[in-house]
Design goal:
Blueprint lengths: L3 H11 L13 E2 L1 H8 L3 H9 L6 E2 L5 E4 L2 H12 L19
Helix pairs in contact: 2-3
Length: 100
């Protein structure tokens, strides 16, 4: 078994230069960057991309890049501020029949 420092050294040289995912153009941001700017989870931004409310594309390295400007940010904030998913029975409703 390798000592801890040797493992750290191997890991840091294997991951050198990978850093955080950054898109290739200045007017694009990554999903984690968009989530941080909006104060939401990455999953919320991924959902907006998946349902087509937020345009995105894959970079040559395979990462997802989102074209970003003030208008895109404002529209996405409006989408995220709308009423949340009501759930299977609607907002605040309970089944009238008791469960067995």
């Amino acid at each position: 078994m390798l000592p801890l420092e040797a493992c750290r050294s191997i890991w840091s040289s294997a991951t050198a230069g990978t850093g955080s995912p950054t898109p290739t153009r200045a007017d694009e941001i990554s999903i984690p960057e968009a989530a941080a700017r909006l104060g939401v989870l990455d999953a919320a931004v991924r959902y907006q991309v998946r349902v087509g409310r937020l345009p995105a594309h894959r970079t040559p390295s395979g990462r997802i890049a989102i074209p970003w400007n003030d208008q895109v940010e404002a529209q996405l904030r409006a989408d995220l501020d709308r009423a949340k998913h009501p759930g299977p029975t609607g907002p605040g409703k309970r089944s009238s029949s008791p469960r067995a």
